[in-house]
Automatic annotation (TrEMBL):
Keywords: ATP-binding, Nucleotide-binding, Transport. It comes from Rhodovulum strictum. PROSITE patterns: ABC_TRANSPORTER_1, ABC_TRANSPORTER_2. This is ATP-binding cassette domain-containing protein. Residues 13-244 form the ABC transporter domain. InterPro entries: AAA+_ATPase, ABC_transporter-like_ATP-bd, ABC_transporter-like_CS, ABC_transporter_ATP-bind, P-loop_NTPase. Belongs to the ABC transporter superfamily. Signal peptide: none annotated.
Length: 257
């Protein structure tokens, strides 16, 4: 008997026994080893770990830009076989097209998918408003600050209405103050769009500010991968005692104080 489920869950990620290694100077470098993890629809998962531990590799596999050696990723039950419109990727640099305006850049993803211009612009404007750049829709990338350009990148990713947002250190290139503002923006956008968010960051405070759970990739061969639940009300307060405790806990996992 087939049981039909009315409650179709969207943006659910299932990672099973994922392993990935690369050839390095004639040897195999194992980056991910039998990683299994479920990410719930609408969850915010932050990935932290030392440089070279495999954060970008994992994100690229989720995006369908790279393939694992073994194991699999399923999204809403279907195996990931390549890139798909259910996922949008945001990198550290927004990589905007310099000859297009903000509106042109944000609408671009829709237009290449064949959405008629008026409709594409209408939807693009909604997301430009969401990231707070309504006044700048006619500006060109060279006229924007780093934080503004990254907001355009976020709007562009959201415009195609993905179920899952994959972000690789999206705020890494920003100054400390802009970064905090953008963390607040990301928290708001994630809540309003009800999107599953999987984000790599090297900033432990940023991870605690944004995460439902933090995936800790230790990098060290013998060490265990860990998942840390961040059980704090939102919006979060970086100075609250429990927040500080989480930060100390995460730092200690990397031998930091
Ligand atoms: N295409 C590739 N070919 C060979 N080795 C690779 C390739 N991609 C990644 N690696 C290696 O795999 C390891 C993990 O790389 P990855 O980019 O996933 O690390 P990361 O955790 O994102 O690091 P960072 O914090 O510096 O961005 C590194 O040692 C890297 O050299
Ligand atoms: Mg990386």
């Amino acid at each position: 008997m087939t049981v039909l489920n009315d409650d179709i869950r969207r943006g659910e990620v299932m990672i099973r026994d994922l392993s990935k290694s690369f050839a390095l100077k004639g040897q195999r470098l194992t980056v991910l080893r039998n990683l299994s993890l479920d990410i719930a629809p609408g969850e915010s998962l932050m990935i932290v770990g030392p440089s070279g531990c495999g954060k970008t590799t994992l994100l690229r596999i989720l995006a369908g830009l790279d393939v694992p050696d073994s194991g699999e990723v399923r999204i809403d039950g279907a195996p990931v076989l390549g890139v798909g419109t259910d996922r949008a990727v945001i990198f550290q640099e927004p990589r905007l097209l310099p000859w297009l305006t903000v509106l042109g850049n944000v609408a671009f993803g829709l237009e290449v998918r064949g959405v008629p211009r008026t409709q594409a612009c209408e939807r693009a404007r909604r997301y430009i408003r969401l990231v707070g750049l309504a006044e700048f829709e006619d500006a060109f990338p060279r006229q924007l600050s780093g934080g503004m350009a990254q907001r355009v990148g976020i709007a562009r990713a959201l415009t195609v209405q993905p179920e899952i947002l994959l972000l690789d250190e999206p705020l890494g290139a920003l100054d400390a103050m802009t970064k905090i503002t953008m963390q607040e923006e990301l928290a708001r956008i994630w809540r309003e769009e009800e999107v599953t968010m999987v984000m790599v960051t090297h900033d432990l405070e940023e991870a605690i500010y944004l995460a439902d759970r933090v995936l800790v990739l230790p990098g060290d061969k013998g060490a265990q991968v860990a998942l840390v639940d961040i059980d704090l009300p939102r919006p979060r307060n970086r100075n609250e005692a429990r927040f500080v405790k989480y930060r100390q806990n995460l730092m200690a996992r990397f031998g930091l104080h």
